[in-house]
Amino acid sequence: MVKEAFVEAADSLFRDFKNKAEITSSIKALQLSRSTVTRRCEAMAEDLTQQLWKDIGDCQCFSLQLDESTDVSDTAQVCIFIRMVFTDITAKEELLTVLPMKEQTRGEDIFQSFKNFIEKTQLPVYKLVSITTDGAPAMVGRLNGFIAKCRQDDAFPDFLNYHCIIHQQALCAKMLNMKEIMNVATKIACSIRARSLQRRLFRAHLEKADCDHSELLLHTDVRWLSRGKFLQRFRELCPEIKEFFRVAGQAEYMQLNDGQWLLDLAFLTDLTNMLNDLNLQLQGKDKTVINMISSVNAFKRKMQHLSLKLQRHDLINFQNLASELEMQGMACLQLDSARYTEQIDNCLSEFDKRFQDFSLLEPVATFMCYPFREDADVDSLASKIAKLFHLNSSAVEDEILTLQADIELKSRDHGQFWNLLTEVKYPNMRKCAASLTALFGSTYLCESSFSHMNIIKSKYRSTMTDEHLEVCLRLAVSSYSPDYASLADSIQCKSSE
């Protein structure tokens, strides 16, 4: 269709071109047969793969992130991304491979598939710094999980492993002691959305009421962000939901007339929106672990501050809660603030518990950002750096002291600071900087690639082979650009009628 439209438009587009006939002829000669398009995709993906393996060979170290999802044909696909750090302490993120799991997806099965990939491609595993996964038993099981199997294999070096920060943040949010609020809201929404007639009548009711929204949302536990959007929409439509049940002659849910339940719903909506903001900050490409730790720490400080403001009945940051109080004709001082500060404190405790692994990195990350702090505990810092990255503690301590006294380095721009350190004088500091830069804080890239996978291998293309799925996925997510000139020179074109 695109080719046909292009041919039709060519007469107008190139009307004033002297070589109009030549351009039109070239358009008509475009090769669009199914097998030709397949070969072109394979050739471009192969070119991208060659660029990737060149960078893997050139990089100083790398880290991996893994996640698993099932495609439309019920084949489990393990997606692996690599973050490479080069000698100038710059990083690049790329899709390493996609491993199809035809049978079981136990930790040992994933490991064996990855091991076969390593042997086939000669991946330089000795450069590995860390592996980031989700918290599934198949990945982090103590004895038979993927990480455990890697540690048991002599081919792997000592490496760090982390549980995806985004997953842990979502798990912290689930620890809020307000499950009953969520369950009731979901039950009410489902009672409206479950039947087509009921859903159409509710839409019509919202239209007559001239509401800003025309639909009631649902949410899924798999997508954390949907929870916040669902709660916000549900709370905004609560009056219309009550009126709809009354007009339809249906039994109302008593919670919709319970003032305390509505206050709890408003508070949960506010807090969930704040957690959503944090979740969005943690997502995206090229997010370093330092960025992510900073975002989590900033959120914790914000929650501590808001807890104190709640104790003073200051609701400026809790707009839904303040609005609900106003609708019920209550003053802020009448609010049972202790009920909600307890929820915030529980959330903060869960954050401290779940982010212990990353908290060990914090002093090292702080040093990498501010290496000339005079109040730094050099002994403790050197010990932590040596333990994390398997270095000699005494040598690290000596380099830190030398670095902090280096007048020339103090005058340099911090943007490329760690690249200015010479390998001869600061070998351990450069290794520390490269290793910290290589760390993945989440499995976001894997999860975003699964969205591409669901589009590429849809129910209309369910017979796509695993090889072609990887080809298309690489073309969709790669930051490399194919060498089109070289590829064009390497093929002999034939006209496609």
Automatic annotation (TrEMBL):
Domain HAT C-terminal dimerisation: 411-473
SUPFAM superfamilies: Ribonuclease H-like
A Pfam family assignment: Dimer_Tnp_hAT
MF annotations from Gene Ontology: protein dimerization activity
PANTHER family for this protein: DUF4371 DOMAIN-CONTAINING PROTEIN, EPM2A-INTERACTING PROTEIN 1
Descriptive protein name: HAT C-terminal dimerisation domain-containing protein
The organism of origin for this protein: Maylandia zebra (zebra mbuna)
